[in-house]
Each structure stands twice: as C-alpha cells, then as structure tokens.
Amino acid sequence: MSHSENGIKMTRTIQIGNKKVGDECPVFITAEIGINHNGELAIAKRLIDVAAMAGCDAVKFQKRTPEKAVPPEYADVMRETPWGIMSYLDYRRRVEFRYEDYQEIERYCKEKDILWYASCWDEDSVDFIEQFSPPVYKIASACLTDRALLTKLRSTGRPIILSTGMSTYDEIKAAVDFLGRTDLMIAHSTSTYPCPPAELNLRMIQTLRHDFEVPVGYSGHEVGLQTTYAAVVLGAAFVERHITLDRAMWGSDQAASVEPGGLLRLVRDIRVIEQAIGDGVKRVYDSEMKARQRLRRS
C-alpha cells in the first residue's frame, strides 16, 4: 500500500517475475524489441542476446491479431516492404510470430535468464500470450481508451503497465479509475517516433507519481540516452527503450531505437545513477573523515 514518509508520498512495490518494481528498488529496464525483428526469429534472438548481455531485466514484444488490429480502411492499402509490395494487412501478417516462434522465444529467454512479455493490441492476442503465463502485460498508448481490452487484461490477474502516450490527463485518469491501482504501473510516454526533446515533458513522471501513487516509469522514443537518464533522476521506477541491431534497418520504429552499444551504456549508466541518487538524508561519510579532520579549523 502507499504511505507517507516525512511528508513525501511513497508508491507501491509490484512484483514482476523475480523482480520488484517501485521505490527503493533497482530501476526495472526493458528492451523493447516490438516489431524490430521484422518477423524474423533469428533477429529476435540476436536482440534478446543484446538485451541479456547489457543486463536488461526484460524484453518486450508486440502482439496483434492482424484481422482485428488493422482498421478496414487500411487493410488493402499497398506498401513497399523488404518482401516486395503487399497490402498492409498482409504485411502485418508477415511480421507476426506464430505459436512455435513464441515457444522458442520462451525457451531462449529462460536460457538467457531474462524475462519477456508483450503489449497485446486486441483481446484475441491476450488469449494467445496468456498461454505463456507472462509476468506482466503492457497496455500500448494507442489502446488506453479500449475498455474491452482493458477488461480482458485485468481478467488475467497479472500486473499491468499502462502507457500514456497520445493521451490527455483526463483519459489517463479515466483509465486508472477503470483499471484500479492494484498491481498497476504507469509509463509516461510521448508517441512520436523519434520524439524531439521539447516534447518529452519528463516532469510528468513526478506528476503521475504524486497523483496516482503507483510505480511510474518512462517509455522513451527519443534519439540519444541523456533524457532517459534524466527520467531516472526524476523518479522513474522502470525504463523502456526500443532496441535494434541497426537504426538504418527497415521498419517504422528503427530510427527511434537504441543500438547494442547504446544499450550497454544505458544500462551501465542507469545502475551508476541509481546508486548516486541516494536518499536525501545528509550524512558525513567515513571516506570524508580524514579530509574533515585535516581541513576543518573548528
């Protein structure tokens, strides 16, 4: 439960698999693979390797039932893809993994000792992913107002991360009220790919923490790492960034993704920052005592 300490509101701690998320816990770091695998299991496994090597806590995928998730007016729109010109519906089918693919993802993540979960964009996709007993679900920003999907996800009894991009404050509050705050986490986000720094509005992390008293994190789509570090300093309990093998690869999310070297730096530096933040209580450290005795005159 939430409580107050020295007048500061404290948030709940939530269990995701073998990890705890919340105040006084290490930042939970998710590498968002999303659809950057382009429907290729080999690429997905290479991205899992990168996330595990960097020390991420989890990787995340996106799951859609194309016939349900693609608006009818876009289904037959033709587009260029790495596999030739095809309809948007056929493209969405092409990049979706099958049950056997997710079985291998499940096995491979266990081998690499890293959690995995997904954002489900329709109710059938929840049934599909539920077969793998994920430790948490994420509600994509685009789905924040989909009450039927929110109800379906709540019915699983699993923790939920609610992403808030492209949403008004009133829409966020309505979604939180609808879901309830039990086992709920909120991800501050701006749904622009890539997002300019002036539109990140990182202080919303503090606003959401204050107003809803649940663990609040950050889902970033910007270029670079600096602003993600700032999100941690501002209190993000968890962080999610899209990852890619190469930002020049084909795909709508690649340009706003972090390459392997950047992910290694991101995780390393977050771990240093969370140590350095401290608890806000002033103390004299043992390491200061020699200098204090030598330099203080009175």
Key phrases:
8-stranded parallel beta barrel, single chain, 12 helices, two-stranded antiparallel sheet, alpha/beta, 298 residues, TIM Barrel
Helix and strand arrangement:
Layout: E1 3-5, E2 8-10, E3 14-16, E4 19-21, E5 28-34, H1 41-54, E6 58-63, H2 66-69, H3 72-75, E7 78-81, E8 84-87, H4 88-94, H5 99-111, E9 115-120, H6 123-130, E10 137-139, H7 147-155, E11 160-163, H8 169-179, E12 184-189, H9 204-212, E13 216-220, H10 226-233, E14 238-242, H11 260-277, H12 289-295
Parallel strand pairs: 5-6, 5-14, 6-9, 9-10, 10-11, 11-12, 12-13, 13-14
Antiparallel strand pairs: 1-2, 3-4, 7-8
Helix pairs in contact: 1-5, 1-11, 10-11
Q: What is the count of distinct domains?
A: 1
Strand content: 15-25%
Total E-strand runs: 14
Helix content bin: 25-40%
Structural class, from helix and strand content? alpha/beta
Number of helices: 12
Strand order of the largest sheet: 5-6-9-10-11-12-13-14
Computed CA radius of gyration, to the nearest angstrom: 21 Å
Structural commentary:
By secondary structure, the chain is an alpha/beta fold. It has a single domain (12-295), classed as Aldolase class I (TIM Barrel, Alpha-Beta Barrel). It contains twelve helices and 14 strands. The strands form four sheets. It has an eight-stranded parallel beta barrel with strand order 5-6-9-10-11-12-13-14, surrounded by seven helices. Strands 1-2 form a two-stranded antiparallel sheet. A two-stranded antiparallel ribbon has the order 3-4. Helix 8 (169-179) links the parallel strand 11 and strand 12.
